[in-house]
Amino acid sequence: MQMYLLPLLVTRSYCTCRPSTLARFARSHDSPFRSASYWPAYYSEVQPAEDFPWKQNDLAYYFLTITNKNGTFSIGPGQFEKDIKTFTKAAKKNKVKSLFSIGGWDGSQYMSDMVATDKNRKKFAKEIKAFMKKYSFDGVDLGSSITRFSSFVRG
Asked: How far apart are CA 79 and CA 5, in angstroms?
């Protein structure tokens, strides 16, 4: 599996539902940037994955999975496995790369421990790979507090 670090233009969260000029630029020109939006899965009853602005994005982020004290990560409270499958299926149908976010905001509480040692990093990498395969994600976004490490997409 090859991993790529992408120049990324995150123009909005899906919550705002308003396409920006920058997003249209990134999608319509030969730009090194890619347009992306986060889908807040915890609002799936109000904002279903089917209503995500697929045509305006190159990348779609499933937000969010949270880190756990035992060195693993899981989907956040109020989120459902069926929504993950709907999200990745819709992304593939619309030819958009789907990524999932690990951490970010309060979901990063145990991120430092998960990457502190070689043993922990290997365990974390295996868990990421298994989650990607299980739900057919194309990549992962590693979050730390309210900043992001970076986004990786499978080639």
From this structure: 28
**Tokens at 131, concatenated:** 């989650």
CATH of the domain at 85: 3.20.20.80
Q: Give SS3 for 89.
A: helix
Residue 17, amino acid: C
CA separation for the pair 73, 83 (Å, rounded): 17
Count of domains for the chain = 1
Grouping H, G, I as helix, E, B as strand and the rest as coil, residue 106 is: helix
The answer to whether the predicted template modeling score (pTM) of the entire model surpasses 0.70 is yes
Helix ranges (DSSP H) in 11-80: 21-28
Q: State residue 142 phi and psi, 5-degree precision.
A: -95, 115
Q: Which residue range forms the structural domain that includes residue 48?
A: 3-154
Other Cβ atoms closer than 10 A to 45: 9
Above 50 in pLDDT, residue 68?
yes
